[in-house]
Amino acid sequence: MPFVTDDPNMLDDWLVVGPAPAPSASRATRLLGEAVLLSTDADGMPHCSLGDMQLAVQPRYGYLWVCPSGRPARPLFDFPEYGEPGRRLVDCGGIGVAVSGLRVIENFLDMAHFPFVHADYLGKVPHTEVAQYQVQVEPSTGEIWATDCRFWQPRASAAHDSSGSEVLYKYRVMQPFSAMLYKSSFRAGELDAIGLFLQPVDDEHVIAHTLLACYDDGSTDAELIAFQHTIFGQDKPILENHAFKRMPLEGRAETPTRGDTSSVTYRRWLRERGMRFGVRAAA
């Protein structure tokens, strides 16, 4: 296999490569250090080629997913909210980030940074405490779930005003480079779903694809996308200025705090999987 890694966590899983090209069109992108060509034939069938080699590909959730080895260890994760009636589906586009994708997922799970990095949006001083929440690995799927997460936010989404409220969160990690956030919706009793699907360009670069499956009848697509880009734009320089571009999984290079229960679980989950791609070797 000509990719930059031999890590089965990457080679034997389904990796996002962005939206499919229009019928009879093609576009180039990068995956695991190599240039791949995505195309859609006149019958609407997607293809992904690496030189003369055809890679296993499937369209799901508005994107193409590629299994580099052609031998997926498991099916692609389920995303039932994608097909629920009444939800708006908005692709917020891909944003390049110069850091390991593991860093991006860990940041996605972290509520403690809200008041400092996302002030007046997802948090605000003095509301800085991360209340205790629950984290477990679901035995039937192997996915990480963080539940009972609550945080006071000035403006939780494009649909919310700036009066502030306590927002309920649930996090789900399906793959090392794919996670979901479920949070209080503008529609009472419902949760909006936000998917973060990372395309691994190489060990220290990803393209972050964000997909909304939300209840919001008052915002335009442009407003929903702009809100997500604002939040991601605040995270991007922090992520890219980490002392280590790759994630340390061993040793005491970075010490978690009480509010980092999800991070601790995620790192342990990666170690148990034998994750090597995007990981900083122990000193």
Properties at a glance:
single chain, seven-stranded antiparallel beta sheet, 283 residues, Naphthalene 1,2-dioxygenase Alpha Subunit, Chain A, domain 1, N-terminal domain of TfIIb, alpha+beta
The main β sheet shows up as: 7 strands, antiparallel
CATH class of the largest domain: Alpha Beta
The portion of residues forming beta strands comes to 35-45%
The total count of strands amounts to 15
In the CATH hierarchy, what is the superfamily of the largest domain? Naphthalene 1,2-dioxygenase Alpha Subunit, Chain A, domain 1
**Which class do the helix and strand fractions yield?**
alpha+beta
The poorly predicted ranges are none
Shape: globular
Count of helical stretches: 5
- Sequence of strands across the biggest β-sheet: 7-13-12-11-10-9-8
Helix content class: 10-25%
* Integer-rounded radius of gyration: 19 Å
Distance between the termini: 28 Å
Domains (count): 2
CATH topology of the largest domain: Naphthalene 1,2-dioxygenase Alpha Subunit, Chain A, domain 1
InterPro entries: VanA_C_cat (IPR044043)
Organism: Variovorax gossypii
Protein name: Aromatic ring-hydroxylating dioxygenase subunit alpha
Pfam families: VanA_C
